[in-house]
Specification:
The chain has three helices and four strands, in the order ααββββα. With about 190 residues, the chain is α+β, with helices and mostly antiparallel strands. The longest helix has about 60 residues.
């Protein structure tokens, strides 16, 4: 993973390989020695095991990509909410109503007048909404954005780690496959 300078900003541990506990693939440097190990009697079984591991890595990658998308959407929503809080704070000094349009359902908006206020209600999830002062809401939204950004860094770190594991597993598959082809060719050459 390239050092972007942002890793330390979001609290990533450079020594930590995976935050999600993704198992590390071992590179098969010496195929002859690897195939001589107990349990590696058949190249077909080893290739099947490596292919299964590769499938597991792909499944983990799929899940992490979806988690990253959800976090990206969450960060955008939180930033929009924070922007609205700032707008309400700036307009609270005026004694004028704020005219706005809000989404009722897909492509259906309603017009509303919002009187000056110092309180706002925020969805917390699980059908829970709480009322906060504008300052409390702003603080909570900033903290949530910070946490979501940190989690996004962890997910991206794990995705980068996972891509390395997929590549290493695919290289191992190719090396063992080539070793088996050479072994069969040598055996066929001796038979003739």
């Amino acid at each position: 993973m390239a050092d972007s300078g942002k890793d330390s900003d979001i609290g990533l541990d450079k020594e930590k390989k995976s935050y999600a506990g993704i198992p590390e693939a071992d590179f098969v440097d010496d195929v002859d020695a690897f195939m001589a190990e107990p349990g590696n009697k058949s190249a077909d079984k080893v290739l099947q095991m490596l292919d299964e591991n590769n499938g597991k890595y792909k499944f983990m990658e799929y899940n992490l990509i979806h988690k990253r998308r959800r976090l990206q959407a969450k960060i955008v929503d939180l930033e929009k909410s924070l922007e609205m809080i700032k707008k309400l704070q700036s307009e609270s000094t005026n004694n004028k109503d704020i005219e706005t349009h809000f989404l009722l359902s897909e492509q259906v908006f309603a017009k509303a007048l919002i009187p000056p206020t110092d309180k706002v209600c925020l969805w917390l999830g699980a059908n829970v909404m709480l009322e906060y002062t504008l300052d409390e809401a702003q603080e909570m939204l900033k903290k949530n954005i910070e946490t979501a950004t940190k989690n996004m860094g962890y997910v991206q770190h794990d995705l980068d780690f996972l891509k390395d594991q997929v590549t290493m597993t695919e290289v191992n598959i190719a090396r063992i496959h080539n070793w088996e082809v050479k072994r069969k060719q040598a055996a066929a050459g001796k038979a003739t």
